[in-house]
């Protein structure tokens, strides 16, 4: 039997190298892909601001933007108010949240070496959701007892969950991916039970509607002030991850290989977990829990440009931003009487897309 195994090992390794070489050969060049995504994103942003219950010509949209940015006095009428105060902050929030979800999904999949992982697997979104639901149901929102506000309560819940998952995952020393995932799943489910209990305690129909809308994700509360936290967190996260792209690539090859390349694996995992937890908390605090984006975006981008994180991270951020802007357009315009939660549309798109991608990967043996 050992002889048989030793004869098979070169064949398996050769097959793996052949598959990797073929995948790299099929990969598209990252710069043209990024340029196409950037141009499409600019067009989608224009459409997101122009389309709605009141349609505004694209030329007028850019005219309002130019006047605001150049310091000119706004013109009288409702178009200026609609464009600058309502639709531009919402479109920019979609860009930031989508880009952040693309980044955090890519980072988490490297952290736990699992292409089916996403940030919600670590339980952080469960803590943020519990904090937000408590703010709605128990009156801890703006003007509430603690004065946290909805976003503040969500972020506080995310940080508390991060500390709890960290403590459980670190028991006995080490920072193994499996222990981290199991701790995140268990604590996330535990917090989900409390969230469900609070939903049952909602005092009226309006509270229940607000809770459900939050749990399914929404960009409807976008304001210029709400953009500050993600506008800082997402670029900082991108720069930090790019600076450690070599380490992320090494993690995918296994801990021993990464350590042999000079990577401090334990330290990198701690930093990755901290970064992804804080960034997830920021994103959930401003938009609620939006499913499938962080899971699906890295898959699509890997199929297009390959798995090198130096290229994958910026392309994932661009594609995530574009996807969420397009989804938000659908959410605002699909129904005349009400707005769809963002998570409903991302789930309807993401579940079939993920099944297709998994079928492709299993069919190709990768």
TrEMBL record:
Main location group: membrane
Region spans: Disordered: 1-21
Residues annotated as transmembrane: 27-51, 91-112, 119-140, 146-168, 180-200, 212-243, 272-297, 312-331, 340-358
Keywords, alphabetical: Cell membrane, Membrane, Transmembrane, Transmembrane helix, Transport
InterPro entries: ABC_BtuC-like, ABC_transptr_permease_BtuC
Pfam families recorded: FecCD (PF01032)
Gene3D superfamilies reported for this sequence: ABC transporter involved in vitamin B12 uptake, BtuC (1.10.3470.10)
Basic and acidic residues biased stretches: 1-18
Organism domain of life: Bacteria
Lipid bilayer topology: Multi-pass membrane protein
Coiled-coil blocks: none
Subcellular location: Cell membrane
The family this protein is said to belong to: Belongs to the binding-protein-dependent transport system permease family. FecCD subfamily.
Annotated PANTHER family: FERRIC ENTEROBACTIN TRANSPORT SYSTEM PERMEASE PROTEIN, PERMEASE OF ABC TRANSPORTER-RELATED
UniProt name for this protein: Iron complex transport system permease protein
Species of the source: Streptomyces demainii
């Amino acid at each position: 039997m050992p002889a048989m195994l030793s004869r098979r090992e070169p064949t398996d390794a050769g097959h793996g190298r052949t598959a990797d070489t073929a995948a790299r050969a099929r990969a598209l060049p990252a710069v043209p892909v990024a340029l196409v995504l950037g141009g499409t994103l600019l067009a989608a942003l224009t459409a997101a601001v122009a389309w709605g219950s009141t349609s505004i010509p694209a030329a007028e949209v850019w005219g309002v933007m130019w006047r605001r940015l150049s310091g000119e006095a706004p013109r009288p009428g409702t178009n200026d108010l609609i464009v600058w105060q309502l639709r531009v902050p919402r479109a920019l929030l979609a860009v930031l949240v989508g880009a952040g979800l693309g980044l955090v999904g890519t980072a988490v999949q490297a952290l736990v070496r699992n292409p089916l992982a996403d940030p919600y697997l670590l339980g952080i979104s469960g803590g943020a959701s519990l904090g937000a639901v408590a703010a709605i149901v128990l009156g801890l929102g703006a003007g509430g007892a603690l004065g946290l506000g909805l976003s503040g309560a969500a972020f506080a819940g995310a940080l508390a969950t991060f500390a709890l998952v960290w403590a459980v995952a670190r028991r006995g020393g080490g920072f193994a991916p499996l222990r981290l995932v199991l701790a995140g799943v268990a604590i996330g489910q535990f917090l989900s039970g409390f969230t469900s209990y609070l939903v049952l305690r909602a005092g009226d129909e309006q509270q229940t509607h607000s809770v459900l809308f939050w749990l399914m994700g929404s960009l409807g509360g976008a304001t210029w002030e709400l953009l500050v936290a993600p506008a800082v967190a997402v670029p900082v996260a991108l720069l930090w991850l790019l600076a450690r792209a070599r380490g992320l690539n090494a993690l995918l090859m296994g801990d021993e290989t990464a350590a042999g390349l000079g990577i401090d694996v334990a330290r990198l995992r701690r930093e990755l977990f901290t970064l992804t937890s804080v960034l997830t908390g920021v994103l959930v605090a401003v938009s609620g829990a939006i499913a499938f984006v962080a899971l699906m975006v890295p898959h699509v981008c890997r199929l297009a440009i390959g798995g090198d994180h130096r290229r994958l991270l910026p392309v994932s951020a661009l594609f995530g931003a574009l996807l969420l802007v397009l989804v938000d357009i659908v959410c605002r315009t699909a129904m005349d009487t009400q707005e769809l939660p963002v998570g409903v549309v991302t789930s309807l798109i993401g579940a079939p897309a993920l099944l297709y991608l998994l079928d492709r990967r299993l069919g190709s043996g990768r």
